[in-house]
Design goal:
The structure holds three protein chains of three kinds.
Chain A lengths: L3 E12 L7 E9 L3 E5 L6 H8 L2 H4 L3 E9 L2 E2 L5 H4 L3 E4 L14 H11 L4 H14 L15 H13 L5 E5 L7 H16 L3 E5 L3 H7 L2 E6 L2 E6 L1 H6 L12 H11 L11 H13 L1
Parallel strand pairs in A: 3-8, 3-9, 6-7, 7-8
Antiparallel strand pairs in A: 1-2, 1-4, 4-5, 9-10
Chain B lengths: L12 H4 L2 H17 L3 H17 L3 H26 L6 E4 L4 E3 H27 L2 H10 L4 H29 L9 H32 L19 H26 L1
Antiparallel strand pairs in B: 1-2
Helix pairs in contact in B: 2-3, 2-5, 2-9, 3-4, 3-5, 4-5, 6-7, 7-8
Chain C lengths: L1 E10 L5 E11 L4 E4 L6 H5 L10 E6 L2 E2 L5 H4 L3 E4 L12 H11 L4 H14 L15 H13 L5 E5 L7 H16 L3 E5 L3 H7 L2 E6 L2 E7 H5 L2 H5 L7 H8 L9 H17 L1
Parallel strand pairs in C: 3-8, 3-9, 6-7, 7-8
Antiparallel strand pairs in C: 1-2, 1-4, 4-5, 9-10
Helix pairs in contact in C: 3-4, 3-5
Classes of the chains: A alpha/beta, B mainly alpha, C alpha/beta.
Chain lengths: 284, 260, 273
């Protein structure tokens, strides 16, 4: 479990023409199979960092990058985004901007990336069927992607990324435009993938969800790395509020109980344990 | 729901035809119409296109498209060229304020004829060709992916922009912009809409570009494959050959007419 | 301000019946949240409040006058609508011009525009960005620029479509402040939101839509006291409320103080037994 799959070394980036750096001196490593979350206020550099992880920086966006990103020991500077796409995949916010606009049906959309890689048609069909089933879009496989709802398109986008069979998935607020049920369904899939060994790096605004899913959390503020630790340590630290981190309700409840001397140990970050803690405290 | 491309699925010979043959048709017919010296020739081709549209079961839509496009342009061009072309020698009518010249009118008819051939055949191609098949055909003929992508993305992005335009129009109405009323007030209302449409299409284009990159677009040293199979039947080959023969014959006839 | 909905139905040209007879009255300054799953008809419903959409049958009365009598642009004086995506709404080359545009459209006097510009740019945190191009604003600021441009018109009703979407902690705090100050100014705020934390802390009434009909309608606390009914729409109460329910505190708590009050009460009662 302890092998590093992604390593970021003293990474800084400034967009061309920008006054300040989007982020600076970021260093962390992600272990194989880990669920790693990045949090911070808007403009703290989260999305830019995601783009750097998948190689869009420095290849697609112009600017000055210092430091390195290694994926499976391979420096992203030395490989193209297209090559990296079978190791690391990105899903971002706007589902409609993640379509290739060259496909007439969902299955063609899913197959698009495979086509670029020259995968034979037979293999393509197998993988499309498998991914469609996994993303629960097999019933709309023959529909035009542009005629689907945002939630369905986001699933298609997810599927098109995942079909490349990357070992790492980077999710940049990928459910912001979905409703609660839609996002939960996507997260169930993400959690399943993670259980099956896929490494997940996620940016999200919903701190309850981050707290529940993450093995470790990286906190960014104005492009600086302020902390990197487990959810309990991050959210249990009262200083975090100053870094514009919204503390999950569960943590706040535990802290109130602690203040009354009714709760010992670290804070809880999930619903069930918090309910148990409150029930216990009622008995004291 | 949003209409995403011009394509209308129909069971017709034109629908079954390989997209490449249809691309041949656009170019062969269009070029023939331009080079042949008599304007009547391009209108014969246009009649041919109407027959093709009939075969494709699209006669009504096609007629509407051609009329909506042809009549306004024809009137405008005849007016400009007919009255004011320096080539005018033979006067066919005197309207008082200006004289209508035969040469100018013929010139206008020629331009409109050629345009109609190009646009008509292009329209027929897009309405009878399923996008997926077009991609497959282009990739199969070893066309540069970037060029192919540009063509397709343009076809698909237009309806997407129309959809956006509608949303933005609503947003503007909510800010007190009256989008109803006379032509002039509507035009005035449209101008502020252009800003957001253009701006957002820039950001959208950037994100779309990102998507393509992360999905292996332009990966080197790999022959791309497609989900949809590109199959050229014998009949498609025959059509293609006939089109080329037609073009060559037109060129020959033109040369003959010039020297005879 | 009074909005009356009378057996409002809306059928899209595709034949989809998005609203299947909605009747209720929204009145006064009590902020109202419209919640429900995607496709429940939330956006379709609020688009009838300023006439972007017209009823297929039934009617919407704004202060007694049918929505059908005027165009959206004419209603914009009375009803402001903040779209979800700022890129749909902004089109001028400075924040200041954006803010002045709407009021000029509805013929507000220049001195009033200047005076409102000062107050509202501060409320929306844009006082130092007035000369900036909206395109150069951060996503948070852009959103507030659209809010400001709508509030500037001084409408009686302000509709927000998913205001917290993509916002961070500070953005949410500012939104709360805006909703509060609009209420204090006698305005009616209506929001569509999936963000239950934001909804329960800033809105007093909830209308829950389900498949084009009203499922629940009432005080926020009463609505969230019915988790079973709510679960039909896949709306789940905010985490703190769920813990209060799970630990059987017997109160619908939306804030930490409320939660602890209920906790202490229950614990006290248990001690006395």
């Amino acid at each position: 479990m302890n092998d590093t799959i992604l390593e970021v070394k003293d990474l800084s980036f400034r967009y061309r023409g920008a006054k300040r750096k989007a982020f600076q001196h970021i260093s962390f490593d992600v272990r194989k199979g880990e669920f790693f979350c990045i949090v911070g206020a808007n403009g703290s550099g989260k999305s830019t960092l995601c783009n750097a992880l998948v190689g869009l920086i420095p290849f697609y966006f112009e600017g000055r990058m210092k430091g390195d990103v290694f994926i499976n020991g391979k420096n992203t500077k030395e490989s193209s985004i297209a090559e990296l796409s079978s190791e690391i995949g990105l899903v971002f916010q706007n589902p409609f901007n993640q379509l290739s606009y060259t496909a007439g049906t969902v299955e063609e959309e899913l197959a698009y990336g495979l086509g670029n890689k020259g995968i034979p048609r037979e293999e393509m069909k197998k993988r499309v069927a498998k991914v469609a089933k996994m993303m629960r879009i097999d019933h709309i496989i023959n529909k035009n992607p542009l005629e689907l709802s945002g939630g369905q398109v986001q699933r298609v986008a997810f599927g098109s990324t995942f079909i490349m069979e990357p070992e790492i998935l980077v999710l940049d607020e990928c459910t912001t435009q979905l409703d609660p049920l839609g996002s939960e369904e996507i997260f169930d899939i993400v959690k399943d993938l993670n259980k099956n060994g896929i490494t997940v790096i996620m940016v999200d605004h919903d701190m309850e969800r981050v707290a529940r899913c993450a093995n470790r959390i990286l906190v960014l503020e104005d492009g600086n790395q302020v902390a990197i630790d487990t959810p309990e340590k991050i959210f249990g630290n009262p200083d975090m509020v100053a870094h514009q981190i919204d503390v999950p309700d569960y943590v706040s409840i535990c802290q109130e109980l602690k203040n009354r001397g009714l709760f010992k140990g670290e804070v809880e970050v999930e619903e069930e344990p918090t309910i148990q803690a409150v029930k216990e405290a009622l008995k004291v | 729901m949003a209409k995403t491309s011009n394509y209308v699925p129909q069971d017709s010979p034109l629908d079954r035809m390989d997209p490449r043959a249809k691309i041949y048709a656009i170019f062969c017919l269009g070029i023939a119409a331009i080079i042949f010296p008599y304007y009547q020739f391009s209108y014969l081709i246009v009649i041919g296109l109407f027959i093709a549209a009939g075969i494709a079961k699209l006669l009504k839509k096609f007629t509407k498209f051609m009329l909506a496009f042809a009549i306004p342009i024809l009137i405008m061009l005849i007016f400009i060229q007919g009255f004011y072309s320096p080539k005018n020698v033979t006067i066919i009518a005197d309207c008082g304020f200006a004289k209508l010249g035969l040469e100018g009118v013929e010139y206008a008819l020629k331009i409109v004829g050629s345009l109609l051939v190009f646009l008509g055949s292009f329209y027929l191609m897009t309405t009878t060709t399923y996008t997926g098949r077009l991609v497959a055909a282009l990739v199969d003929s070893g066309m540069n992916m970037k060029v192919g992508y540009l063509v397709l993305a343009c076809l698909n992005v237009v309806p997407q922009m129309q959809r956006r335009m509608l949303i933005i129009q609503e947003a503007q109405a909510a800010r007190g912009v009256d989008t109803q009323g006379t032509f002039f007030s509507r035009l005035k209302a449209y101008i502020p809409l252009l800003g957001p449409v253009v701006m957002s299409s820039f950001t959208d284009a950037q994100e779309r570009g990102m998507t393509l990159e992360t999905r292996g677009f332009g990966v080197k040293n790999v022959k791309p494959t497609t989900f949809v199979e590109a199959k050229k039947r014998t009949s498609d080959r025959v059509v293609q050959i006939l089109l080329v023969v037609f073009l060559v014959a037109t060129i020959a006839a033109t040369v003959f007419l010039k020297f005879a | 301000m009074k909005i009356e909905l009378k057996e409002l139905r809306h059928v899209y040209p595709t034949g989809e019946e998005a609203l299947k007879g909605i009747s209720t009255v929204i009145e006064g300054t009590e902020p109202v949240a419209i919640i429900g799953q995607n496709g429940a008809g939330k956006t379709t419903l609020v688009k009838h409040f300023n006439g972007i959409l017209r009823p297929s049958s039934g009617d919407v009365l704004l202060n007694g006058e049918s929505i059908k009598t005027r165009s959206t642009a004419q209603w914009s004086k009375l009803v402001g609508y903040v779209f979800q995506n700022p890129d749909d709404q902004l089109f001028l080359d400075s924040v200041k011009r954006e803010m002045e545009f709407g009021p000029r459209q509805v013929g507000m006097p220049e001195d009033k525009i200047a005076q409102r510009l000062k107050v509202i740019s501060e409320l929306c945190g844009l006082q130092d960005k007035l000369d900036m191009h909206p395109f150069d604003l951060t996503s948070t600021e852009k959103k507030f620029c659209t809010v400001a441009s709508v509030v500037m018109m001084d409408p009686e009703v302000v509709i927000f479509d998913e205001p917290t979407c993509g916002q961070d902690v500070r953005g949410n705090e500012r939104l709360s402040k805006i909703v509060q100050s609009l209420k204090d100014a006698g305005k009616l705020c209506i929001t569509i939101s999936h963000d239950m934390k934001f909804v329960v802390n800033n809105f007093e009434r909830a209308i829950v839509l389900y498949k084009g009909k009203i499922l629940l309608d009432g005080k926020m606390k009463d609505v969230f006291a019915q988790p079973d009914e709510l679960s039909k729409t896949f709306v789940s109460p905010p985490p703190i409320t769920r813990v209060a329910i799970g630990a059987e505190l017997g109160e619908t708590a939306f804030t930490i103080p409320e939660f602890m009050k209920a906790f202490d009460a229950k614990r006290g009662a248990a001690k006395h037994e």
